[in-house]
Amino acid sequence: MERREVYLSFLKLSKYRQRLMQYRKFGTTDLVVSEIGFGSWAIGGDAMIGSTAIGWGPADDNESVKAIQAAVDAGINFFDTADIYGLGHSEELIGKTVGGNKNIMIATKVGNVARDEKFTVDYDYHYMISACEKSLQRLQRDVIDYYQLHTAKLSHLQQGDCIKAMQDLQQQGKIRYWGISLNTFDPYPEAEFLIDRNLGNGFQLVLNIINQKALPLLRKAQENGYGIIVRMPLQFGLLTGKFDTSSTFAATDHRKNRLTPEIIEASNTATETVWQLCEKYNCTKTQLALSYILGYDAVSTIIPGIRTGQQAKQNTEGLFQLEDEDMKLIEGLGNSTMADLMRRIQKLG
């Protein structure tokens, strides 16, 4: 490489690669969370409910523990899980590894249930109280930092049992704060219900280069004091650039029926313009995808799925601030090319 090229590379690094792990306040709570958190769905393993895959294929517990430890070493202090992930196994691993570390904040979810070999939901008051106790045991905690309704519908909120359960658990000191994990494709009805009534403390929602449906919600949530957790920042791996039409997934991986060759091809075509920015910022596709989300100050933390120590490293290093023109470019694609892709993705669920 010539001296001039070396110098230009240095300038890119010095301009865009100054960001170490940073921390953000979670809404109006006293939680201060790492801007990159640990998404714990995949470490639950290849659980099935009947013939339905609810995991990401096989997971090695030893590797999962190493991933958790590597994440803590990288500055991650926020772990997000759910009682349905691995049918409780994800919570157990987190409890075993960092449950006793009071510097770590743990969020989990309730409401998705495996019953009689079928997937269902349950937001009954007494069920939620019991489920919280079981989560506390698995997490080896006396209190859950942030407890979430796992994609509860508007009808559940209107019925009221789940809200009373959350309020009572908070009053009893079993949870510190609570909120809801919102629907992937239409997050608004449930979010607006809680905002209008000043209920809860935060929202978990999907936001990434491909799925920008929740963008208008960010500012309203922030103005009303809600923290924001962003899930699926890499859209099930589509935004890592590692998949092509020959990619396959295990029968126990929920992506088998979601990331079809047609969706992968359409995604790779739709993101071609975005990936041109990787040269400008001298970054990987993953770094660009995560940095784009961090460009919104309403976002409290992002929870990419982490399965290995290497992924903990990849998801926490080399993040940077995108220039305004590039944020607008991506948003423009979200209203055009990506919107067409999202309609195809939504049909597959």
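The record above closes out task 2.4. Task 2.5 opens with a second protein, given below.
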Amino acid sequence: MNGMAKYKVPALLWIVFEVVAVVLWRATGNLFYLGNFSYIGTALAAGTALYIANWRYARHAVQFAIGTYMLVYLGFLCHENMQIEGFWYYLFLGSFEAATIHYAVAKIFGPLVFGRGWCGYACWTAMVLDLLPYKVPATHERRSFGWLRYVTFVASLTFVGALFLLGVPNLADIMWVAFIVGNAIYYAVGIALAFALKDNRAFCKYICPVTVFLKPMSKRAVVRVTCDKDKCISCGKCKRVCPMDVDVTDNSLDRRNGTECILCMECTKACPKKAL
């Protein structure tokens, strides 16, 4: 693929997000959605283009462009709780805006197309965890406490549900505090777990409640890493560099940890035969 033709994927990605931006803007009458999804789409398209151009830090640049936007601008400046508690909050209010739209696009229906791409390119927790020294996990054998993600998922739902059932006043203020405290806990636990298990992505594998949405929805994702068996020499390099322990040499829907691929593309970089 030569010239500008190799950039057709980032161009298509940008167009898709522009369509979403315009549709939501026209449907809600809120200009925010036009700017929001245009920015995210532009960041993703630019990052994809930089990756195609072989820039080493393309994915991390996208992570920080989107992650800091959501954490700092939407969160700290606009006081929007973009954590899972914010999703439950707006959902119980019956309001299709802010966190509910974010979750619908990025974490519930979006993964049917781009899988766990959110985790690799936009998550503001992972953008910090990916800077830690254990980019390749010390072991690719999973621990037995992955069930903790369901505990944190139920805890978040129970917390917000109880606030509504008890008629607690000033819910918006409580959600703002919950956003600050929740992020502090996520970072503290994520960093501690990374050092304890020598695995930057341990939090994503065992604790993160959002994966309860992401895992089943990404099983049949349209965008996924596949292996050309005719080129593959079974050297195992792709498996060794994968931060999420995915067996990308297996093209079946039931491949090992298949629903956890974050599309970081480290496997494609490591493959000596360009089989992925």
